[in-house]
Backbone:
């Protein structure tokens, strides 16, 4: 993939005041969004590095998968708006779209679904990994361990230079994540593992593995299955976020796909990222009552207090996260369908949102609810334990991770990612023997 296949004549020029020299770098346009200054030759020409901790102004790659306009609150997957996909599509169809670039035809969809369905079981030996964990291990610790171990079982899909093996590994990861996550839950509560079933949809299978027992038939609620499927769509991919960038960086060294996805799971676990959905529920429970909201808003605004309003703010969205809009709507639908009237946490979350969005601190910083603000309330209403929220996010995001990983590995210009630094440490000094160190 040649960066910006369309030739560009535009460029930016800057003068290095320390030498008086001027430099010219190409300005590359995409199909949408900001142009990029191609700085690949910058160090060679100027002897300087760029400096952008947190990558607030840095494009790490070219991609055709997901586009975000943070100012307008727009999220497109291969050009399709997230609200339309959430309304009309289903998770496996979105998986096909992300992985292969197009919505499937009817026959392609049936073949793709069958391909995923045939990889939902895990090697029987993997069953024993769980017993190495304490029952109270966090499910994300289990996910990191078990997913990282998959490469020890699937040697026929480790050659990353073979597109067919890459696709088999991608199918295996998408298909097995729900099984691995559901079994982490079953292990934690001491119930027997429930095997996947080929007569159920992706979302139905996950809920069945979570809540069925061998003692009696378990019929998955169509309402909860539909809500789960929509939530999986909303979390599927999101451009170059922290966990996706982790997967790309791990993959750039040639690491196998299972190791790369395990790295992505580890990064997603952080409360500033995917761990926020669990942190929102903890925060709402801690706030407890509407009359305590001002106290926590004040904490969130206090620079001396590390507390942040979880589920609020986003590096890219400086408008309402379009996924949060759909998530809030889904929250009301699920609670209504479950006959859960006046869920206090939802009432509290909506009041917290109302107050925050009227507060100059949040308005000036363009801090809006993000995808994590309402998701936990839905998960809790569905009977999913708080500790499993981020594992669910990982189940959904796996298709985004493997799609971005495939895009990177199949790029003929791909090379290992190796950032530099601004060094501010000690200048050269001679070794001081122990006896002379005072
Ligand atoms: C996800 O990248 C992605 O796409 C991620 C994700 C995905 O799908 O992959 O969308 C999923 O991770 C969503 C985000 C979930 N995290 C949270 O909800 C945690 C709470 N949010 C914050 O930690 C924060 O908003 C981040 C981490 C999400 C974004 O941080 P940034 O972009 O680095 O912003 P910042 O820390 O520079 O904040 C800018 C200002 C600061 O104040 P000032 O220094 O300007 O005075 O806004 C303040 C921050 O203190 N601020 C907040 C805040 N978020 C930012 N203040 C209070 N509460 C918050 N939540």
Residues:
């Amino acid at each position: 993939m040649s960066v910006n296949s369309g030739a560009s004549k535009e460029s930016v020029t800057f003068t290095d005041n320390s030498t008086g020299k001027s430099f010219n770098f190409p300005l590359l346009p995409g199909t949408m969004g900001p142009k990029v200054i191609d700085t690949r030759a910058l160090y060679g020409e100027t002897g300087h590095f760029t400096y952008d901790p947190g990558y607030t102004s840095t494009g790490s790659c070219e991609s055709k998968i997901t586009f975000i306009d943070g100012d307008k609150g727009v999220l497109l997957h291969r050009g399709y708006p997230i609200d339309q996909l959430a309304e009309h599509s289903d998770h496996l169809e979105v998986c096909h779209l992300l992985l292969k670039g197009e919505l499937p035809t009817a026959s392609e969809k049936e073949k793709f679904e069958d391909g995923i369905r045939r990889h939902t079981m895990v090697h029987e030996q993997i069953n024993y990994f769980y017993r190495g964990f304490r029952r109270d291990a966090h499910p994300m610790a289990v996910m990191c361990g078990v997913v990282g171990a998959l490469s020890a079982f699937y040697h026929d899909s480790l050659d990353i230079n073979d597109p067919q093996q890459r696709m088999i590994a991608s199918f295996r990861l998408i298909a097995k994540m729900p099984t691995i996550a559901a079994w982490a839950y079953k292990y934690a509560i001491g119930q027997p593992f429930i095997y996947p079933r080929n007569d159920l949809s992706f979302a139905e299978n996950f809920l069945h593995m979570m809540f069925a027992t061998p003692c009696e038939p378990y019929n998955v609620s169509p309402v909860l299955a539909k809500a789960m499927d929509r939530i999986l769509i909303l979390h599927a991919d999101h451009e170059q976020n922290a966990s996706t960038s982790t997967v790309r960086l791990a993959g750039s060294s040639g690491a196998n796909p299972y190791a790369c996805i395990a790295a992505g799971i580890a990064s997603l676990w952080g409360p500033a990222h995917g761990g926020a959905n669990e942190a929102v529920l903890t925060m709402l429970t801690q706030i407890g009552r509407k009359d305590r909201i001002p106290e926590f808003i004040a904490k969130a605004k206090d620079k001396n207090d590390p507390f942040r309003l979880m589920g609020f703010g986003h590096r890219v969205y400086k408008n309402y996260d379009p996924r949060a809009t759909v998530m809030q709507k889904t929250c009301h639908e699920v609670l209504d369908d479950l006959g859960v009237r006046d869920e206090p946490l939802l009432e509290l979350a909506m009041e917290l949102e109302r107050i925050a969005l009227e507060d100059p601190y949040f308005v000036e910083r363009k801090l809006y609810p993000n995808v994590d603000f309402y998701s936990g309330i839905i998960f809790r209403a569905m009977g999913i334990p708080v500790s499993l929220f981020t594992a669910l996010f990982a189940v959904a995001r796996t298709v985004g991770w493997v799609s971005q990983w495939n895009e990177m590995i199949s790029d003929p210009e791909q090379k290992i990612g190796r950032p530099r630094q601004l060094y501010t440490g000690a200048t050269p000094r001679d070794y001081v023997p122990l006896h002379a160190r005072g």
